[in-house]
């Protein structure tokens, strides 16, 4: 198995050195860029498995860098992104998730928590279905979910989802017709527990709907059950 490669885009050189030493000792390849422009250049040169992206950068903010990553051609646009945000600023976290970050971690953080988050994101990205999980391709009307290719199409057109959003969609599709709470959905993909008043699951659901619904404001595939959670419709067009 090849060594997972990480790229950290962070203007605090001392922090990046500390994180790099810790992650290297934990079995990862590590590269570092001090600003967004050089980070994007390194990403295209090295094609890392995951980007650790600071929100505050000297040349541009991390949200704009994330947008540019998602606009890159080919598979590089699908690289996992873990965003570092200012503690106590939920709006930045919500916006980051909306534009395609897979997870976030508030500063200051413990290196062990960063490591756990990285492993969780990469595990979700690299998981393959077992025989007990059902068919490799699930069909719901014009919606096709291919587990092996980790791709989603609607009427033959690709739907743009992050790795984490793909896993959320698969978890719901496997339980089509069942009303699931937010905690049950998160638990199904072995994600972190929800923080109090954390809206991240709703943000992800909004992104998934935007990708797979004909009209995201009038969803027919993922329905909200007020006061409970969500249900993935069994019968779809």
Summary, kept brief:
Keywords: DNA-binding, Phosphoprotein, Transcription, Transcription regulation, Two-component regulatory system. The protein is α/β, with parallel strands linked by helices and 237 residues long. It has two domains: 5-126, Rossmann fold (3-Layer(aba) Sandwich); 131-232, Arc Repressor Mutant, subunit A (Orthogonal Bundle).
Structure description:
The protein has about 240 residues and is of the alpha/beta class. The chain has two domains: about 5-125, 3-Layer(aba) Sandwich (Rossmann fold); about 130-230, Orthogonal Bundle (Arc Repressor Mutant, subunit A), CATH 1.10.10.10. Helix content is about 40%, strand content about 20%. It has eight helices and twelve strands. The chain has helices at about 15-25, 35-45, 60-70, 90-100, 110-125, 165-175, 180-190, 200-210; strands at about 5-10, 30-35, 50-55, 80-85, 105, 135-140, 145, 150-155, 155-160, 180, 220-225, 230. A five-stranded parallel β-sheet has the order 2-1-3-4-5, sandwiched between helices. Strands 6-7-8-9 form a four-stranded antiparallel β-sheet, covered by helices on one side. It has a three-stranded antiparallel β-sheet with strand order 10-12-11. Helix 4 (about 90-100) links the parallel strand 4 (about 80-85) and strand 5 (about 105). Helix 4 (about 90-100) runs parallel beside helix 8 (about 200-210). The termini are far apart. The model is unreliable at about 125-130 and about 190-200 (pLDDT under 50).
């Amino acid at each position: 198995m090849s060594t997972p490669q990480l790229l950290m885009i962070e203007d605090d050189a001392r922090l990046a050195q500390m994180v790099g030493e810790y992650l290297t000792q934990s079995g990862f390849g590590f590269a570092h860029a001090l600003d967004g422009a050089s980070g994007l250049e390194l990403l295209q040169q090295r094609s890392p498995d995951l980007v650790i992206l600071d929100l505050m950068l000297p040349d541009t903010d991390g949200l704009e860098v994330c947008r540019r990553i998602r606009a890159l051609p080919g598979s590089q646009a699908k690289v996992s992104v873990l965003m570092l945000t200012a503690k106590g600023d939920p709006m930045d976290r919500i916006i980051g998730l909306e534009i395609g970050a897979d997870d976030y971690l508030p500063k200051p953080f413990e290196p062990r928590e960063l490591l756990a988050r990285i492993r969780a994101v990469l595990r979700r990205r690299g998981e393959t279905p077992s025989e007990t999980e059902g068919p490799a391709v699930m069909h719901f009307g014009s919606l096709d979910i291919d587990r092996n290719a980790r791709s989603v199409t609607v009427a033959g057109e690709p739907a743009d989802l992050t790795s984490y959003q793909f896993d959320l969609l698969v978890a719901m599709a496997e339980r089509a017709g069942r009303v699931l709470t937010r905690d049950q959905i998160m638990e199904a993909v072995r994600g972190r527990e929800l923080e109090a008043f954390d809206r991240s699951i709703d943000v992800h659901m909004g992104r998934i709907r935007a990708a797979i619904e004909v009209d995201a404001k009038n969803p027919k595939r993922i329905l909200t059950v007020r006061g409970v959670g969500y249900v993935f419709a069994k019968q779809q067009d």
